[in-house]
Each structure stands twice: as C-alpha cells, then as structure tokens.
Amino acid sequence: MKEEPLWYIFINASLINNFVLAYFLGICPFLGVSGKMETATKMGGAVTFVMLVASMCAYGIHALLVAIDAPFLQLISYIVVIASTVQLVEMFVKKLSPALFRALGIFLPLITTNCAILGLALFQTNKGYGLLESFVYALGAGAGFTLALILIAGLREQLEFAEVPKIVKGTVLTLLIAGILSLSFMGFAGLGSQ
Amino acid sequence: MSKQNKNKTGFFANLENSPSTDEFIKGLWRDNPVFVQVLGMCPVLAVSNTAINALAMGLATAFVLLMSNILVSSLRNFIPKQVRIASYILIIATFVTMTDYAIQAISVELHKALGAFISLIVVNCLILSRAEAFASKNTIGKSMLDALGMGLGFTFALFCLGAVRELMGNGSIFNIPIFPDNYQEWVVMILPAGGFFTLALWLLLFNAAKVNRTEVR
After folding, report:
1. How many CB atoms lie under 10 A from the CB of residue B112?
2. Do the domain assignments include residue A10?
C-alpha cells in the first residue's frame, strides 16, 4: 500500500469521492430527510458519529478476523457491530432530545441499513488503512455526507416556493438536483493530484 | 415515505381476496420496488452504468431476496419479536456472503466491476422491507412468489437504467455497438450524475403515466 498523507484521505473522502454524490451510498436518508435544513444537519451529525465508531470497530474486527483466519465472517460481524452502534445512538438521542428523535423518525433506526456506513467499513478494509488513517477516512466521509445533505436541504427549502409541474414534484425533483450537484462535485476531481 | 405507506395499506387491504398470481405480478409492475416504492436506490444508481452490470446486480439481489424470504418465512414462528430485525439481517448477510463468493468464482471480472456493491446487498432496504412486511407474516409459497416478483421487478428496473445509460454513454448495449461509429458519446451518462438524471427521467415517466390514469378516471 502506498502512503497517502492524512489531509489527502480527508479531502478524498469528503469532496473528490463524496459518498453520496460519487459512490451513491446512503441515498435513502439523502432523499428522505433532506427536506428541512435542521433535520439534515442533525442527521449528518448522527451518521458521522456512527461512522466514526463503526470504522474503529471495523478496524479491530478486521485485525481479529485476519488473526483467526476467517474472512467469510467479515460481512456478518460488521453489520452486527453497526446495528448495535445505531441502537446506542438511538437511545442516546431519545434521552437527550425527544424532539429530534421524532423529527428523524424511522430514519434513525434505518441508519443501520445506511449503505454509507457499511460501505465505509468495507472500503477502509479494502484500502488497508491503519487506525489513524481509518479515523480520518471516517471523519472525511461523515463530513462529505453531511455537506451533501445540507446542500440539498438548502436547495429543497428554496424550491418549496417554486412552481414546478405536478409530475416533477417530490423524488424526481430531488434526483434532478442531486444530479446537478454531482456534476458540480466532479469539479473537485483534480484536487490533490498535483 | 407517505407514498410508500399508502401502497402498503392498499396492498394489505386487498391481500385477502387476491389470487396468488397477484403476489407475483404486483412486484413486476404495480408495486415495482424501484419505480413505485423507491427502495434500494444505492445499487440502482451505482452499478447501472452498463446493461450487463445492472443485470448481474439485479439477479444477485433477486437471489438473496428469494432465499432470505424463504428462510424468514419458514422460521417466522420461531423468531422472537424483539430480535427479529437482527435475525433477518443475519440471515440476509449469510446469503450475501454466499453470493459474493459465488460471483467471484464465476467471473472475477464481474466481481471487480461490481466491487463492494455485492456486499452492500445486505443493506438494501428492499430485502429487509420484504422480510419484515411480507415474509414474516405469510406462508412459504406466498413469500416465494412475492420474492420472485419483487426480485424480477428490481432486475427489470435496473436493466432499464443500465440499458439507457450504456446506450447514451457508450453507444452500445451488452457491448454490442448500436449507433454508427460517428456517434458522439454522452460521457455524462456513464458518470455518477448520469445515474441521477436517468432515474429521474424514468420516475418522471411513471409519474406521468399515473397522472394520466387518474385524469382519465
């Protein structure tokens, strides 16, 4: 594995290969909770936290599975760890802010089936990142996810007042905006390659 | 979300008096997982850049859906209610691991093209939602038909996207050139942005059909 500077890993995960707009990971919450700015921000925070915990756990699990020579258990153990982390976050949020808990609704437990988190764990394993690198990668991925969610929430809030044909309203409009955002994120492609 | 709920209630309402062939047909068209229920978007967008990738992904998902639906349905009286979601995910993860190794054995090239997205079938909301909403409440036979219908509907939707994206972006379908040599490829269709645009256009088509139908009535 070639050495990558940490800042490059962060920029790569958050901008160049943005999880939502370039890898299409985590589209469900992206379409679901991006209607309001406030929920979008907090959802981004929750996902980033789960990502950090899951990434650290995945690093440990991978080391363990390599030691006992059972790579076929990788997927199963990752998903179990993610599910329990989400359960933890859910209890935490419920206790701390019931209003937020209601606003996120079904999408909070659904973080378990958010592909961005499992994807992150799998990608960092494939890339052979170390502990610190994994941490930065998770941070970058979380930041990228939050950024994409906030951008689209801002756009959708404005579009509430726009008059659009009936058949375009809803998912179609969000997908079109996402496509345009994805196009503009391609502008970051040359970043960091020198 | 509201659209999805409405579909579900409508679907449960007429479940009692519908023939079993209906379980199969509904997944293909009326409750198509991608175009109508908007479930399992991530793989739909990510691997639909060529028709062959889309087809392989669709079939792999359909297989996992079928097997997990059968197992969930046959174990539905033994799984305690509190831990059901965790058990479903474990069942799904087992079949996904098997599929992952099987695809690697069949074609390394295809495995590389699909990459992590085979493993990510685990978190495809379509499979979990069928296990929770259908297989855990119905007999094995019905669940099998449901899974087949939904799986084929998913494959069909993926193929629709993949074919359009490959045709526009590469001028071919299944690597067979369709357009003459001087066709200028729309590279954007192969890129991530093209996935969003193509899916938006397909949904637009379905919406337009729906609006038309209600107006005629």
Report:
1. 9
2. yes
